[in-house]
């Protein structure tokens, strides 16, 4: 579904991506892990065309997007939705209006069809009857749910999740992970998630990839990833203890 070939990127004089080769399988949930500052969010932004590589190629299906501009890039982006760290809701709009925004702005949809789709997505994420509220009236977990509803409302092929549980307590983080998994299983979209939630991500991901020193150090099915013999990767994923990793591996 998404393929990166030799992607390099320098930001602020620092080489962030140093030749990333990365194949993301269609219909699966792939999680990217790595130490802070390794460029995980930068990697996501290349996938959706918010950043362009200094060198290399980014493919979405059969489209090479790394040099695209304007209408051509916007057409590819219609296949995507993105859930940002802070949900990125518009404070001046109600939850309903936030979720309806991409339907009205991108699809020029109006009237009853907007209401039907928004109400449907709010119900699916557990926010039925909450459309009249403003973001300031929501808890952190509810904001994440509203952001997920907005991502789902366009019925995208691909959803990118940038640290979707940042700032949440462990129980709320688990509920958001469970919701993402449930929506993924229901709608079969391709999911790419950046997360620091170890070892929990091994229980919800189909594939796990680690970004290290500007490259993908390892990508494997979740159950295989935790068996790595690479000492640096093993140390990184063992921070929560071997018992947790054993459980994550099944």
Helix and strand element order: EEEHEEHEHHHEHEHEEHHH
Largest sheet: 6 strands, mixed
Tell me the Rg in angstroms. Answer: 18 Å
CATH architecture of the domain at 1-79 and 193-250: 3-Layer(aba) Sandwich
Helical coverage, percent range: 25-40%
Distance between the termini: 28 Å
- Mean pLDDT, as a whole number? 91
Major beta sheet, strand line-up: 6-7-8-3-9-10
Low-confidence spans:
240-246
The DSSP helix count reads 10
CATH class of the domain at 1-79 and 193-250, named Alpha Beta
Number of strands: 10
Q: How would you classify the helix and strand content by structural class?
A: alpha/beta
Name the shape in a single word: globular
Q: Say what the CATH topology of the domain at 1-79 and 193-250 is.
A: Rossmann fold
Into which percentage range does the β-strand content fall? Answer: 15-25%
CATH superfamily of the domain at 1-79 and 193-250: P-loop containing nucleotide triphosphate hydrolases
Provide an overview of this structure.
- This protein is an alpha/beta fold and 250 residues long.
- The chain has a domain at 1-79 and 193-250: P-loop containing nucleotide triphosphate hydrolases (Rossmann fold, 3-Layer(aba) Sandwich), CATH 3.40.50.300.
- Helix content is 38%, strand content 24%.
- Strands 6-7-8-3-9-10 form a 6-stranded mixed β-sheet, with helices on both faces. Strands 2-1-4-5 form a 4-stranded antiparallel β-sheet, with helices on one face.
- Helix 6 links the parallel strand 7 (158-162) and strand 8.
- The longest helix is centred in the C-terminal third of the chain and has 18 residues, at 170-187.
- It starts with a strand and ends with a helix.
- The relative contact order is 0.17.
């Amino acid at each position: 579904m998404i393929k990166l070939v030799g992607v390099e990127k320098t930001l602020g004089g620092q080489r962030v991506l140093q030749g990333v080769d990365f194949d993301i399988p269609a219909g699966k949930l792939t999680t990217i892990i790595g130490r802070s500052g390794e460029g995980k969010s930068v990697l996501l932004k290349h996938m959706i065309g918010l950043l362009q590589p200094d060198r290399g190629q980014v493919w979405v299906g059969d489209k090479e997007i790394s040099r695209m501009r304007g209408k051509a890039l916007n057409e590819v982006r219609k296949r995507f939705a993105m859930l940002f760290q802070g949900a990125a809701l518009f404070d001046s709009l109600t939850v309903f209006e936030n979720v309806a925004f991409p339907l009205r702005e991108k699809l020029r949809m109006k009237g009853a069809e907007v209401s039907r789709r928004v109400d449907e997505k709010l119900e699916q994420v557990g926010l039925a009857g909450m459309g009249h509220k403003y973001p300031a009236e929501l808890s952190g977990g509810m904001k994440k749910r509203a952001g997920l509803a907005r991502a789902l409302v366009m019925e995208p092929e691909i959803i990118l999740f940038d640290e979707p549980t940042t700032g949440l307590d462990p129980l709320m983080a688990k509920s958001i992970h469970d919701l993402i998994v449930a929506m993924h299983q229901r709608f079969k979209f391709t999911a790419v998630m950046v997360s620091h939630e170890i070892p929990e991500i091994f229980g919800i991901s189909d594939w796990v990839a680690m970004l290290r020193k500007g490259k993908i150090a390892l990508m494997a099915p979740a159950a295989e990833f935790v068996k790595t013999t690479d000492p640096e990767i093993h140390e990184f994923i063992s921070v929560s203890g071997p018992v947790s990793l054993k459980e994550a591996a099944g």
